[in-house]
Write a structure and sequence with these properties.
Layout lengths: L9 E8 L2 H11 L3 E7 L5 E8 L2 E7 L11 E7 L3 H10 L3 E11 L8 E9 L5 E7 L3
Parallel strand pairs: 1-4, 5-8
Antiparallel strand pairs: 1-5, 2-3, 3-4, 6-7, 7-8
Amino acid sequence: MTRNTAGGGLHHVALKTGSWDASLAFYKGVLGFTEKILWAYPDGNRAGMLDTGAGNYLEIFEDAKYVPAPNGALLHLALRTGEPDAVVDRARAAGCKITVEPKDVTIRTTNGAGPVPVRIAFFEGPNGEVWELFKNELT
């Protein structure tokens, strides 16, 4: 029996960048993505979700010390789901390492979009890839 993630589909792909301004300029100016939400961390690093179209997003995390690995800058893959807790239970039963248990988080945006409540969880897939389960109403 095949089960989807109850809402299904990729929500976003997340990348790290050592050059926030250049990344925003490229993804917005060259590829035409638009800002959905932006936020900042206490350490001064910034992050944001850019709308790529059709309800899919590119999430960018700033890290001034980041140097891309030879295999690229992919941080994690995020699945849109209405049932993150149930999916975590299935991943755990399959032997996956749960790295962040399901939890509610409010993203405090810096671009006027207001607070964005989300429910998230993270686990490692069978090949070491990092998956995020992402439930929210705004994005």
